[in-house]
Amino acid sequence: MRSGRYVSIKVEPPGPKAREVIEKDSKYLMQSYVRWYPLVIARGEGAIVEDVDGNRYIDFNSGLAVLNTGHLPSPVIQRIKEQLGRFLHYSLTDFYYELAPMYAEKLINALKWDGGKVFFTNSGAESIEAGIKVSRGYFKGSRPYLISFLNSFHGRTMATLTLSASKTIHKKYFHPLLPGVIHVPYPYPYRCPFGSENEDECAERVIGYIEDVVFKKVVDPSEVAAFFIEPIQGEGGYIVPPKRFMEMLRSLTYRNGVLLVADEVQSGMGRTGELLAIYNFGIKPDLAALAKGIASGIPLGALVGDGDYMSLPKGSHANTFGGNPVALSAADATLDMLLGGLMENAKKMGTYIKTRLLELMDSSRIIGDVRGLGLMIGVEIVKDKAKKVPAPDLVEWIINHCFKRGLLIIGGGESSLRLAPPLVINRDQVDEAMEILVDVIREAETLL
Ligand SMILES: Cc1ncc(COP(=O)(O)O)c(C=O)c1O
């Protein structure tokens, strides 16, 4: 068994209590979930998670990039408690409450989005759905097409599923999907879809394909309402596109009057050291979809956009729960925490983790690529560094062995590890986590 300053593994997981929960879960819940390993959480604090058998782990998942402020952040809990003493719900669809415009103004100011407006939702998929309706609605139906990227993930509702193209299992059995969606390659620098080894060249090849093939042979750009893009692909493996690509895409959308919608559901709310990941590229989108980290784990999402675009007519879009007052209170306190030092810590800790991983990559036979911004870091595992052969079996082995030793990480894309600790993580916790990760990767190398 293992114990460190933060980690404590007393019973090999899953312990007896965990096994009981898992058995009941499989009896009563539809088993369409992924479930990376048998972690049954009992409580959390900051960057530490405890399971039902009393094992303690360092959390590099943040509940899927949601708990940016860590587990049980006290300013957020305090604001939630205050709101619980006032009212729990009173649908924004039909009535008003002060908290909604108050938080919307604060979010717009924090995003430096002059003239911006907000629509509140309950999830990432719902924020993207809102983005589809707002962009098609803005053109009053005259531009029915939407373009998204291969290897992207935008959600699991029928429309967001259509935009996504990371795994066929997401769509299998569910066709027909939304008409009018076209997928184009994403400039994945490590595996450029056009075979280029140079980032800028890869960016130019992808943009060239959109202009010379898609816009000339597939759809006229005057019929395209919007591009939907993850500024860093999340589910796809934490892939950072070249800066040149983001700049070229922005100018291509301006030239053609097409909206640029940033899916910031996973990359947003400070995770990359900026409130929106796309700000790292010096680019402002027309619309941005938010969720996950916005309210520290209380379900909330938002679509933010220029007021001109956020102009759907009365009665054309709404929801019952979007902008729930408890969720907005949590969001308000979350934003204060992010602006009050957590984004800085994300940059600092992110640089530290990446530097250590890049050092490890030099001497490792299986680390093909290390990438990411802030605390959104991808590590691509390969069987052969020269040939870049994917190693999904090694990824699975590494993830499971990290779990057994007290570090929680998951995979992404075909063959990558996703590292997404809470933004409150400190240097000692990172050091203990890295010790586990390095040991496990070194052992994985011996399996080849
Ligand atoms: C980039 C991105 N967009 C959209 C979604 C969908 O969000 P939700 O699961 O809250 O509907 C996700 C979820 O993982 C995501 O990572």
Please sum up the structure shown.
With 448 residues, the protein is an alpha/beta fold. 37% of the residues lie in helices and 18% in strands.
Structural key phrases:
single chain, 448 residues, alpha/beta, Aspartate Aminotransferase, domain 1, Aspartate Aminotransferase, domain 2, 2 domains, 7-stranded mixed β-sheet, 5-stranded antiparallel β-sheet, 18 strands, globular, binds pyridoxal-5'-phosphate
Task: Characterise this structure.
The chain is of the alpha/beta class and 448 residues long. The protein folds into 2 domains: 2-72 and 342-445, Aspartate Aminotransferase, domain 1 (Alpha-Beta Complex), CATH 3.90.1150; 74-338, 3-Layer(aba) Sandwich (Aspartate Aminotransferase, domain 2), CATH 3.40.640. It is 37% helix and 18% strand. It is built from 11 helices and 18 strands. The strands form 4 sheets. A 7-stranded mixed sheet has the order 6-12-11-10-9-7-8, sandwiched between helices. It binds pyridoxal-5'-phosphate. Pyridoxal-5'-phosphate (PLP) binds next to helix 5. The site of pyridoxal-5'-phosphate (PLP) has 14 residues, from helix 5.
